[in-house]
Write a structure and sequence with these properties.
Chains A, B: It catalyses: L-aspartate 4-semialdehyde + phosphate + NADP(+) = 4-phospho-L-aspartate + NADPH + H(+). Chains A, B: Keywords: Amino-acid biosynthesis, Diaminopimelate biosynthesis, Lysine biosynthesis, Methionine biosynthesis, NADP, Oxidoreductase, Threonine biosynthesis. Chains A, B: It is an enzyme of class 1 (oxidoreductase). The structure is a homodimer. Chain A is an alpha/beta fold. The first copy, chain A, folds into 2 domains: about 140 residues, Rossmann fold; about 160 residues, Dihydrodipicolinate Reductase, domain 2. Helices cover about 30% and strands about 20% of the residues of chain A. Chain A is built from 9 helices and 14 strands. In chain A, the strands form 3 sheets. Chain A has a 6-stranded parallel sheet, with helices on both faces. In chain A, helix 1 crosses helix 9, helix 3 runs parallel beside helix 6 and helix 3 crosses helix 9. The longest helix of chain A has 19 residues. The N and C termini of chain A lie close together (about 10 Å). The interface between A and B is large, with 76 and 76 residues.
């Protein structure tokens, strides 16, 4: 396509944790875009950021910011997306939103290009959403296994990175670590808590040298919003509205990359050999599974990469229809920015 | 009992991570012991350690160390326990072992005093064992729930502290943290790994700013020894030899206190209200469960305490017979030293 006919892309929330990664991703993927317009809160307007090797000035979020925009990628808090996505649509843009604002809206498809690419075609509100980063840690691998074995039940536990709570989450972990590292802290009652004081930032408890069984806000009956997002998101992307899903979300002192343990029960009997084949050949998934050689995915290896990494593939010892997996994925890349960029590319491809 | 008739206790492995905690525990519990003899490898012999407010000299492990000993608590590696526990028995002692050496031996009871106290009576080999620390993180709460609802299936994921790998584990985490803390590390590919280098100590991967889905040695079919210990231990303590148990064990950068997510399915329908009552009133268990007020257990709060802490109690949304829990327990105390001390006290009480 001649450059003059290429679609204009707006990145809304260009200065945030996900927005920053989105600009890196747009700079490295096949360049299908005409103008890439950077948009952020008025407070950040005028800042210059690099994208595709060039500096671009950040425009203030407002109605005019969407003039002439074909696709708008939103990487902003829920309430900002709820307010401004319809404005962007009214100005003629298709919106791809990474927030929770529209995920459960029945008129907004929840899209993972490797799993349900056709979902982008039906978008009565002009809005497409990506699932939460925790669902995106497993859903590509799970979709491939579901296609062959037929998923029947999920039990999931998360090991979620602090960058899932944005820049404030990362800053909080770094501050807390600088207070506790190199000391004898962490073995006696209350010493981590004393060192950290009230500086728990976006987390309800200290996260350095600790794990916190809570992510998101209170939903109902003791469930957190992150846990509900995994259940709702998995059901919606896989088209299994009654799938039993039990989730516990836990924050861990990792900067970036969410990890999950997955107990997945299927319609049919599974074999580890076939499961490993499916995982190894599924687009967007890497099998990393040789415990004898010390090979399994960890956040330290997965950070900055695009695929879902899967290891520890075992058949449940007491159920020939169930698999155990450990999955890792970069929560800022496939967990948010990359998935959104892929959706936007798919929308453009469908138009041609 | 007059002090002269009180039983003699030997603590074998008195200088190790568990042994050190055992001496603190023996110093604070009701004092039923005559002599407390400290035993360790010849390398540590002659060192002086405090117990019950007095200094005691460490004796070298050897046949003579067990002369006149009534009870011997072993807190040593598996192979040392396998070699020396029978020696202690031959010299007339009852052995309480915290290692894995005898756990699966059908002639060695696996004892958790709150759950199966009567098991101490039948000890044809003169040896009693405690379960692994991961099983001990949940088994007291689970035993109470089982007594009422009838346990039918378990899916467990662990968040295991580095002190589970002994002093070397703690030293490794501290060293790694001092290398990565206060820097911008942890966000770019490979930077944690580069900073840590080959200094992964007893762990197969860096554990600072990371989670490692592996604990123990390779068992078979991709399962780790820690995962098998949870399945075997839970079945044996609860007397449910065919209980389906699916476990994934993961190491996290926490110094002390193991945490678990537990998906427990029962024979009968459960209610959260009754489950919380059972947990709140079970001896050795504390209910800490008010997410609205930010209350759930975390290692930073639980370290140094005796009970199992349970929070995040929910009924599975798609299965009225299943509960979700998050449990924390000090892996050096109830997870090892405290449970052993309780078993020893139970043996003495049964004699009287």
């Amino acid at each position: 396509m001649p450059a003059s006919q290429r679609p204009t892309l707006a990145v809304v929330g260009a200065t945030g944790a996900v927005g920053t990664v989105l600009l890196q991703i747009l700079s490295h993927r096949a360049d299908i875009w005409g103008e890439i317009r950077l948009v952020a809160s008025p407070r950040s307007a005028g800042r210059k950021l690099a994208v595709r090797g060039e500096e671009a000035e950040v425009a203030a979020l407002g109605e005019d910011a969407f003039d002439g925009v074909d696709l708008a990628l939103f990487a902003v808090p829920d309430e900002v997306a709820a307010q401004w996505a319809p404005v962007a649509v009214a100005r003629g843009a298709v919106v791809v939103d990474t927030s929770a604002a529209f995920r459960t809206d029945p008129e907004v498809p929840l899209v993972v290009p490797e799993v349900n690419p056709h979902a982008v075609r039906m978008r009565p509100r002009g809005i497409l959403a990506g699932p939460d980063a925790t669902t995106l840690t497993m859903i590509v691998a799970l979709g491939a296994l579901h296609a062959e074995f037929g998923l029947r039940e999920l039990v999931v536990s998360s090991y979620q990175a602090v960058s899932g709570a944005g820049r404030a989450g990362v800053g909080t972990l770094r501050r807390q670590l600088s207070l506790v590292a190199g000391t004898a802290l962490g073995t006696s009652p209350g010493d981590v808590r004393r060192a950290v004081g009230d500086g728990t930032g976006p987390f309800p408890e200290p996260v350095a040298l600790n794990v916190v069984p809570w992510a998101g806000s209170l939903h109902a009956d003791g469930w957190s919003s992150d846990e509900m997002a995994v259940r709702d998101g998995t059901r919606k992307v896989l088209g299994l509205p009654a799938l039993p899903v039990a989730v516990t979300c836990v924050r861990v002192p990792v900067v970036t990359v969410h990890s999950l343990t997955v107990h997945a029960r299927f319609q049919d009997e599974v074999t580890v050999g076939r499961a490993r084949e499916i995982i190894a050949t599924a687009p967007g998934v890497v099998l990393c599974d040789d415990p004898d050689a010390g090979e399994f995915p960890t956040p330290a290896d997965v950070v900055g990469t695009d695929p879902t990494w899967v290891g520890r593939v075992r058949r449940a010892l007491d159920d020939p229809t169930a698999l155990e997996l450990f999955a890792c994925g970069d929560n800022l890349r496939k967990g948010a920015a990359l998935n959104a960029a892929q959706i936007a590319e798919l929308v453009v491809a469908e138009r041609q």
